[in-house]
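Entry type: protein chain
Record version: 2
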Amino acid sequence: MTCQNAITRTAAVLGLCGLLVAGCSKNGGEQTSAPNSQIVAHVGDQVITTQEFANELRLLNIPPDKQKDHETVKKVLSEMVTRKYLLQQALTAKLDREPNVLLEILRSREQVLAAAFISRSVSKKFSAISRADIDKYIADNPLRFSGRKLMTVDQISFPFSANTQSMIESIKAASSLDEVDQKLTALGVPHGLSTSTLNSSEIPQELLVRMDAQKPDDVFFVRSGANGLFLKIKSTESRPLEGDAAVNMARQLMQNDLVKAEAGMASVSASLEAKYEGVYSNIMNSKADEGQKN
């Protein structure tokens, strides 16, 4: 998951997190008073401040030229008002004291803070990237730039889950999408066939190498979010990326690489620092041993 996605998904509960950490008041969690000039709306005991509204626009990726559009403002504020209303109702019902809700609030807080930490670390490193670094990155990744390709593919997509994972290996040997379709149908897995265009600049490097090595009639499997995809390349068109467009794409890809690297280093550091107890110690140590053997 990217930092922005984690922040966007959990923004709705930040108000609850703040109340949880600071301690709820007797009347159901009144917000700290703000000057009237900074208040956009009152919803019972809750308020929406100008800072909250500006942050909401940022998280929703509303462009600056649309942020004062009346329809946009009405839509965003209406959603925030509903959220504040539901927050007030939940606090009045003392739902923030229920164990499962409390755990979800704490988990969301952890996700936001973890994402913020990685984002800050990435920002510091990204600011040190020079034009020479960018030019070298472009030269070192020809399939993304000078050798960029647009690929038209036929694909079969289906919801990926623990239940479908076990059957994928048997389907991977399929020689055509028709065969994949037949096997998924026989197994009762819902799926759909479609055609799409893939840009080699936006494909992960490891997948790009795999695709470049494919024979014309090969079918291969990839994960895409919550879905599984069986793909077959229909046609390929050369579309070099050069000039400012290449520089902008390189900066974006380099930033993505930094995020992955930071997350990877954090995972390693966390594993070294973690101490498991009881049965979990045996489980985690056995997984570590298996990883070393592989």
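Comment: The beta strands are 39-43, 46-49, 149-159, 192-199, 220-224, 227-238.
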